[in-house]
Amino acid sequence: MKKIIAIILLISSISYSAFYDAGAGARPVGLGGAFVGVADDANAMYYNIAGIYQVKEIAFTATYSQYFAGIFDNYVAVVLPFQKYGAIGVSWLNMVADLYNENTFTLGYSYPIDRDNYIGIGVRMFLKNFGSNEWTALNPIFDKKTATGFSANISLYSKLTDELSLGASFENLNQPDVSLSSKDLVPSIYRVGAKYKLFKGLFLTLEGDYRNSEIKGAIGSEYSVGVNFLETLGIKGSDISFRGGFGYGTHNYSNLSLGFSFFLPTKYIDGRLDYSFTLPFGFVEGVTTHRFTINIMEPKPEFSI
């Protein structure tokens, strides 16, 4: 079964565009993928580079995503803030199957135009590699097994009020060719979205994406509540967040996502564990996915323990 699926992936990578946008990070995916207007942690390196300026302390995130039949991906990002000089980030997304491997490396920089408006620029490197078996050995397409490409990205983030924020990201503007033989362009992606704070601890987020004639919309919400009972142990500032999201679009795309986080601040590091579960209603566009993310941040000045 794994070999059959791997062959399907090989054929799909030739027939359709490579580097499908499956999302990254348990928290954004738990919001249905509606994160371009949120972009307030290291996951912004995938969704909206301009948003990394909101990350005021050094931040690291690492995600493991399990799909099916030995197919999984890993995502790692680091953000380094430089106060009024902006913030810089790097990330790596790796998708692995039996005979196929995709790697996406991103270098990004966010600069504050003013106190409430930021601009981000980024460069991405795409690298895909095919393995070998008796089927690929007989197919002349796979005489070349590795392909690379580079893309340019620009993004914006704006805080209109204390409650409302807007984000936009324009990615892979030059549509790099990562083909083995015939042309295989990485499509441009255009994301626009908004975040609205309903009250303390609760926000709503909306997003629309366009990629290669595919249109997707997503809505998500997150609610955070303090874990007061831990104060008896001398731990202050911890919280639990619950989130959910729904995505809908062309080509039978329809997903329901749920997730939660546990945040624990300490004197030396702040830690957050994220989990999300995605249930697809469209066969082609996805499979049930579990994502686990570990976030490690430099503690805020007013650390809690």
Key words describing this protein structure:
305 residues; mainly beta; Porin
Brief overview:
The chain has 305 residues and is mainly beta.
Topology:
Elements: H1 2-15, H2 26-30, H3 44-47, E1 59-66, E2 72-81, E3 87-96, E4 100-114, E5 117-130, H4 134-137, E6 146-159, E7 164-171, E8 189-199, E9 202-211, E10 214-226, E11 239-249, E12 253-265, E13 270-280, E14 289-297
Antiparallel strand pairs: 1-2, 1-14, 2-3, 3-4, 4-5, 5-6, 6-7, 7-8, 8-9, 9-10, 10-11, 11-12, 12-13, 13-14
Description:
The longest helix is centred in the first third of the chain and has 14 residues, at 2-15. The chain contains 4 helices and 14 strands. A hairpin with a 2-residue loop joins β9 (202-211) and β10. The protein has a single domain, classed as Outer membrane protein transport protein (OMPP1/FadL/TodX) (Porin, Beta Barrel), CATH 2.40.160.60. The radius of gyration is 20 Å and the shape is globular. It starts with a helix and ends in an 8-residue tail after the last strand. The model is unreliable at 1-16 (pLDDT under 50). It has a 14-stranded antiparallel β-barrel with strand order 1-2-3-4-5-6-7-8-9-10-11-12-13-14. With 305 residues, it is mainly β. Helices cover 9% and strands 51% of the residues.
